[in-house]
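Problem: given the chain below (312 residues), write out its structure.
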Amino acid sequence: MAWRNHSIITEFILTGLSDDPHIQALLFVLFLGIYLLTVMGNLMLLLVIRTDSRLHTPMYFFLSNLSFLDLCFSSVTMPKLLKDLLSEKKTISVEGCLAQVFFVFITAGTEAFLLSVMAYDRYAAICHPLLYGQVMSSQLCVGLVLASWGLASLNALVIVLLAINLDFCEAQTIHHYTCELPSLFPLSCSDISINIDILICSTLLHGLGTFLPIFFSYTRVVSTILHISSTSGRSKAFSTCSSHLIAVILFFGSGLIRYLMPTSGSSLDLLSSLQYSAVTPLLNPLIYSLKNVEVKAAVRRTVEKYLHYFRK
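Solution.
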């Protein structure tokens, strides 16, 4: 690769979450539990949606893709974090670091697009219920998911090309537990002003381009719900939308803080990264299952089905 010719260092040192061995042991147990629960929760949601024919609708098609994304997203950073919590020296190769940056951007970027698509789905279902089946056809749903992956991949490729052209000369300590582009910029001996401007523009375009459709969709949704005369109808509509709104706030809030605020190596940097890369993938299955009557009923049917199967 081109950057091999002008980068002196071959690896970075990660400071991680703590230097205290006892705290690291506690953090290892904590994050191992979080990762295992994240994997089990999202796999369970995927299994339930796959096996229960009542959930074969556009809303749950998008939700199954969100669960798959959360599995991928948490797996980009969590295994490395767990390994480092058990290691005295926390290092990552330059190649591995850039690969991690790429996969963070592609998974997080796709999730942002998918949350926007899910907001449009709720708008179509609540504001135009009679046309919902025609509007949200299976071809459109698949196309929207593929477009989300494609646009996020393009954005991730542009971002990584920026990082590849950076010179890393002497400083090699990343004050973070993972490789993220804002933490790499201070280590470069190149002029990073253009890179920072492009990253901010990319984040704003990506963030606003996905958040604004969510905002306008839910403005219409709330207006429509308030005009529903039935109390039970309003309650059901708010219930299906509130889960998605919680997921949006958790994801966009922490992500925008991380990529728009100046990097300082502070606890806020670490907490915002942990929020969207570890906590949100854990909470999404709980949010969508605990607040959704259809999912809870499907989980019960799936569990009863497999218990009956194993008793035979």
